[in-house]
Amino acid sequence: MINKKILEMIKKYLEMYKTIETKQVEGTSEFLKVVRQEYRLGMGETIIRDHIVKPNLTGSAVVVLPITKEGKFVLVIQPRVLTKNGALVEVPAGYIEPGEDPFQAALRELEEETGYRGSELVLIKDYYQDQGCMQAFNHAFIAWDCEKRTDQHLDFDEHIQYFEATYEEVLELVEMGYIIDANSLLTIEFAKPYVTGKTHEISNNKKIF
Amino acid sequence: MINKKILEMIKKYLEMYKTIETKQVEGTSEFLKVVRQEYRLGMGETIIRDHIVKPNLTGSAVVVLPITKEGKFVLVIQPRVLTKNGALVEVPAGYIEPGEDPFQAALRELEEETGYRGSELVLIKDYYQDQGCMQAFNHAFIAWDCEKRTDQHLDFDEHIQYFEATYEEVLELVEMGYIIDANSLLTIEFAKPYVTGKTHEISNNKKIF
């Protein structure tokens, strides 16, 4: 059973972060653009497709499951205005910035969102997030031996609450529907053989800091 | 080991469907729009966020893992111009149309893309596909006892090749990186306890046809 205090804390932040009023505003998005292109296929035919361009162009993101020296998992709660509940519990994640490799992005995003830093990053899975409308090719990591090192570094309108949970609590939060986004679910799923000790990391998928 | 003929067939279609030339074209997208809204949060603060609106507004999709009476799995190959290889092997999927419930959409999409129809649809998982920039709340299904009933019903510029594979071959295609998108991977992962007989379906998540 999930710790009662953790569940109360989660509910408190979900309440704080949820949307209570929405209104349309004018203005062009600097964040999301739609691009139209024509593609000639190997079979000769030409098709037209629209796709979304994000701030880092491709929209590729890293997802980082941080595990502390004590074997706890670090999760985040944040406003998600596009969801029914208005806020979600997630695995830390963020966009790869231009010039970064996925490992650098993973290290930076983890530290910005939580102030934690791991001593070893293991790439556990790459996948397309939404291949029908964007190029985003995401990378899921485990960060081992994490420790709280610094404060969070958040943008002015970014709100992220982090907390530690046991592995059983992480699985329970999935089961209960608190963790319910594709990035977090896939990362937790593909981390399973590593967490349960069934898989040993392949050396070229790993970086030590 | 995966059947050689299946692998050759997959490679042939990936080659046919891949992009060999790309060019920018003019025109406004009817398919993807960006909307800007202001949100007041429970904690009092107001934030502005942009999001993507798809043809069915939310962009919610269904993903359907079809299993035949003989225990084979039906997969699709299609052009995916936004990916590195230009084409992917996937679990059948598509957008929920206005007025449809997820079960209706699953039945329709499966039939359109493959011509197969199942006698029982089981909803195995709901999840947000990309909660930072769209509302899409997807639904993953297993369609049991599928049979080939009709021809495919494809749009004029849609190309989809379907094929049957064993469960071991499906897992191998994941392992080999041929199946590499979030929707297909999540559906195959969450189907595992059902396919291996460890989970019995909950009756209100199931519809029989």
Description:
Two copies of one chain form a homodimer. In chain A, the strands form three sheets. In chain A, strands 4, 7, 8, 9, 10 and 12 form a six-stranded mixed β-sheet that branches. Chain A has a three-stranded antiparallel β-sheet with strand order 6-5-11. Chain A has a two-stranded antiparallel ribbon with strand order 2-3. Chain A is built from four helices and twelve strands, in the order H-E-E-E-E-E-E-E-H-E-E-E-E-H-H-E. The radius of gyration of chain A is 18 Å and the shape is globular. With 209 residues, chain A is an alpha+beta fold. At the A-B interface, helix 1, strand 1, strand 2, strand 3 and strand 9 of A face helix 1, strand 1, strand 2, strand 3 and strand 9 of B. Strand 2 (33-41) of chain A pairs antiparallel with strand 1 (19-24) of chain B.
Quick recap:
In chain A, 24% of the residues lie in helices and 36% in strands. Chain A is α+β, with helices and mostly antiparallel strands.
- In total, the number of strands of chain A is 12
Order of helices and strands of chain A: HEEEEEEEHEEEEHHE
Helix content of chain A: 10-25%
- Mean residue pLDDT of chain A: 93
C-alpha termini separation of chain A: 35 Å
Question: What characteristics describe this protein?
Answer:
homodimer, 209 residues, 6-stranded mixed β-sheet
Record the SSE blueprint:
The structure is a homodimer of 209-residue chains.
Chain A: H1 4-17, E1 19-24, E2 33-41, E3 46-53, E4 61-68, E5 73-79, E6 87-90, E7 93-95, H2 102-114, E8 116-117, E9 120-128, E10 137-148, E11 161-165, H3 167-175, H4 182-195, E12 206-208
Parallel strand pairs in A: 4-10
Antiparallel strand pairs in A: 2-3, 4-7, 5-6, 5-11, 8-10, 9-10, 9-12
